[in-house]
Design brief:
Distance between the termini: 47 Å
CATH class: Alpha Beta
Strand content: 15-25%
Strand order of the largest sheet: 1-2-3-4-5-6-7
CATH topology: Metallo-beta-lactamase, Chain A
Oligomer: single chain
Number of strands: 13
Bound molecules: fe (iii) ion
Largest sheet: 7 strands, mixed
Low-confidence stretches: none
Number of helices: 9
Shape: globular
Length: about 260
């Protein structure tokens, strides 16, 4: 039985929860988030079959599952949105994702949704333009921030101006087994370095992203895998690290493009 979710923020009207221990078996540890404001609810990057059952059980202890308003998908990967057909069927939520992925998401859903339940996947998708947008949840205006090429070509993150949490998707992700806050930045680097070098597209975008994040008032950066960065000093250390990281295309050369023997 999964643990209770971690409360990241709660002021009585606005709540941010993190489910951090739903993955068992072969999957990479991952964090699923729920933002609630004024009885409206957004679920972030709910994942695939691996997390659907424990997450839907965890949520239904908090509210009737049908009442979920939004599902945010930072990008198109299996650990992000693979169980979209179950969420469309069992909730009335609309799915927010990049316009680049909106037309591909129907490939994840089965014909029975339309045939037996009259559910059109495309009608339930809110397609974000490349520049992002604001989405109202209760009295809160959540910012859908551009994070393209970090790592997906059409990639978004959520900034919550009330909790001052940046839900950063794969940015800042670490391959560890828990979601306790990073204590020593230097000791944490080995758990995220290989992932960021390979999955992030280039230093150009990490710099652009870091500059955008510096213009926001952020108290916590919470990635979809591994440990959050809490407080201005730790967030500053991460931003400085990522904007100086050579990654992706920066590291690719002729040796990486040889015809396999
Ligand atoms: Fe991904």
């Amino acid at each position: 039985m999964p643990r209770e979710p971690i409360v990241l923020f709660d002021n009585g009207n606005h709540l941010c929860l993190c489910f951090d221990d739903l993955v068992s078996g072969d999957g990479v540890q991952s964090n699923q988030f729920l933002i609630v404001d004024d009885e409206m609810r957004m679920l972030l990057d709910p994942g695939g079959d691996l997390t659907y059952t424990p997450l839907s059980l965890g949520l239904s202890r908090l509210f009737p599952l049908q009442d979920l308003d939004y599902i945010f998908a930072s990008h198109q990967d299996p650990d992000i949105i693979a169980a979209i057909d179950k969420w469309l069927l069992h909730t009335r939520a609309r799915v927010i994702c990049s316009q680049l992925w909106a037309r591909f998401l129907p490939h994840l859903t089965a014909n029975y949704l339309a045939a037996c339940h009259g559910i059109s996947t495309y009608d339930r998708v809110v397609a974000l333009p490349d520049l992002g947008s604001s989405v109202q949840l209760g009295r809160c205006h959540l910012k859908m921030l551009p994070a393209h090429f970090l790592h997906s070509v059409g990639n978004f993150q959520v900034y919550d101006p009330i909790s001052k949490i940046l839900f950063s998707g794969d940015m800042g992700a670490s391959l560890v087994d828990d979601a306790s806050p990073v204590q020593s930045f230097t000791e944490h680097v080995p758990y995220m370095e290989g992932f960021h070098r390979r999955y992030m597209a280039s230093n150009k975008v990490t710099r652009l992203w870091a500059a955008m994040v510096r213009r926001l008032d952020v108290e916590m950066i919470v990635p979809q895998h591994g440990r959050p960065f809490v407080g201005k000093a730790m967030i500053g250390a991460f931003l400085q690290w990522i904007e100086n990281l050579q990654c992706g295309l920066d590291l690719m050369g002729p040796d990486d493009f040889q015809v396999p023997r």
